[in-house]
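Figure 2 data, in text form.
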Amino acid sequence: MVPHLVFNAERGVDALLKHWLCVSLRFEHVEVELDGMKKGPASSLFAITSSVISTTDTLTPMLQLCGSVEDVSRVFESALISPNFQWRARAWARSLFLG
């Protein structure tokens, strides 16, 4: 894996691994489409993807539930995801240690 990768507004391999740990703990079924596979040294296998994109509209249903943008903002203030479904690493890390 390249050390200079940018993932979910963070940098580095650790950011990618942290994200996939979070996804695998919270979602039962995740599909990733491979662009290809290569055999590396010592019979290791490399899976190649050009991008992984996940999107969802959380804002519209949250507006219906909460009634105002201010209330939606309050809900997402300490949430593990942003309204555009981006993981918030600091909030997620706190949730691991605080239960």
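Caption note: The chain has four helices and four strands.
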